[in-house]
UniProtKB/TrEMBL annotation:
Keywords: Metal-binding, Nickel, Zinc. This is Hydrogenase maturation factor HypA. Zn(2+) binds at residues 74, 77, 114, 117. The keyword Metal-binding applies.
């Protein structure tokens, strides 16, 4: 369900690029960055995208999904750090925490502490949400 709504918003953004490209024929490739904190299943997203793109210029486009590891920042001392696989796994394995983060990724910071100064004021730099990274459009010009 969640993946379908994300796929629809990605498709809308892809179609915007398509419409603003002169001589656009079809969408060749879609690159997406999936933040680990979004807990979006990349394969479910890929499937949802193939379903919602039927009968659109993005039908049969190649979909590349890159997983983005979360990065956090402490506003007090300016320290920035990445979360390790074990922390991500700990969140994913806790059903209540995983559901919370899935709905509202910002809650994860309540479970974190700055490794340098111990502050509990932690900001998410990246790793939440799903972002359309780039779109490759096949145009008339390329085909001659
Ligand atoms: Zn700090």
């Amino acid at each position: 369900m969640h993946e379908t709504s994300i796929a629809l918003s990605i498709l809308a953004a892809v179609e915007d690029v398509f419409r603003s490209t002169p001589g656009a024929r079809r969408v060749e490739k879609i690159r997406i960055r999936v933040g680990m904190l979004s807990l979006v299943d990349p394969e479910a997203l890929r499937f949802a995208l193939s379903v919602v793109s039927r009968d659109t210029p993005a039908e049969n486009a190649e979909v590349e999904i890159e997983t983005v590891r979360p990065r956090f920042r402490c506003p007090h001392c300016g320290y920035e750090w990445e979360v390790g696989d074990e922390d991500v796994k700990r969140i994913a394995d806790d059903p209540m925490l995983a559901t919370l983060v899935h709905i509202h990724p910002d809650v994860v910071v309540k479970y974190l502490r700055c490794p340098r100064c111990g502050s509990t004021d932690v900001e998410i730099v990246e790793g939440k949400g799903v972002v359309l990274h780039s779109v490759v459009i096949e145009t008339d010009e390329e085909k001659g």
